[in-house]
Amino acid sequence: MSTESNDFTNNNQQNIGDSRSSLKNNEKDSNSITFGMKYFMHTYQVFDSKKLRKKARKMAIQIMKQIGYAIMVVEPGKFAMKYASSAPYHLFFTRVENSEETYNQQFSIIFSEILDHSLGEIINSLHLTFTVDVGWLYLQYMLAGQCTDMTILYKHRICPCHEELSKNITIIKINGHEFSSHHTNIMILQYSNGIRVVVSTAALYSDDWKNRTQGSVKYA
């Protein structure tokens, strides 16, 4: 790695360290979560190597715990085996935070596992959903150590007034009557060697993935 690259890495790590100190001092402030997500949505996209994204993931977990943001994590790199064992249907159910017996069930998952790098490196993503929390979705990509370039088509957005999106995210609101809308929840994940399609009963926000039983089918 060149001296310039080392400086780049050190500067980014210093910036995250400074941000962590600032957040720790304000962890009781209700706006600290918003501040943390805004910081990462403008910083994480520059971590363009697996090594740097791994470091960013660890720092993100630590910071989110400090400011009281509830997250569920698993060790990355193992989902490919779970995916293979679920053939031929590849049907999974969400792990329920308040139900510990779901934690170790064979086909229970958390959202970041769908993005796991054991299935390949994601180049771009397309999300179609009724409800989206962009900050929460962005965090899932950070936890998986994946590229955050994405396009989101949605009907309802949680907390839009508090988020300033980074340039690698395109978000498009689909207008229409709330009760005549098709509640499609589809992800199309682009890899260097093809795509995967995920169809889910859950929308893209925390509550749907934490304490509700949801189904998800992943097509190769």
Feature tags:
2 domains, 8-stranded mixed sheet, alpha/beta, Endonuclease, Chain A, globular, 220 residues, two-stranded parallel ribbon
Describe the structure.
It is a single chain. The protein is of the alpha/beta class. It has two domains: 64 residues, no CATH class; 141 residues, Endonuclease Chain A (Endonuclease, Chain A), CATH 3.30.870.10. Helices cover 36% and strands 20% of the residues. It contains seven helices and ten strands. The strands form two sheets. Strands 2-1-10-9-8-3-5-7 form an eight-stranded mixed beta sheet. A two-stranded parallel sheet has the order 4-6. The longest helix is centred in the N-terminal third of the chain and has 23 residues. It is globular, with a radius of gyration of 17 Å. It starts with a helix and ends with a strand. The N terminus is likely disordered.
Task: Give the structure's gist in a few sentences.
This protein folds into two domains: 3-66, no CATH class; 79-219, 2-Layer Sandwich (Endonuclease, Chain A). The chain is 36% helix and 20% strand. With 220 residues, it is an alpha/beta fold.
Instruction: Tell me the CATH superfamily of the largest domain.
Output: Endonuclease Chain A
- Helical run tally: 7
**Integer-rounded radius of gyration:** 17 Å
Q: Main β-sheet: number of strands, strand sense, barrel status? A: 8 strands, mixed
When the domains are counted, the total is 2
Low-confidence stretches: 1-30
What is the molecular shape? globular
Helix content: 25-40%
What is the quaternary state of this protein? single chain
- If you average the pLDDT, what whole number results? 76
Q: What would CATH call the architecture of the largest domain?
A: 2-Layer Sandwich
Using the coordinates above, name the CATH class of the largest domain.
Alpha Beta
| Quantity of strands, as a count | 10
CATH fold assignment of the largest domain: Endonuclease, Chain A
Query: Structural class, judged by helices and strands?
Result: alpha/beta
Beta-strand proportion: 15-25%
Helix/strand order: HHHHEEHEEHEEEEEHE
Ends apart, CA distance between termini: 35 Å
Which strand order does the major sheet show?
2-1-10-9-8-3-5-7
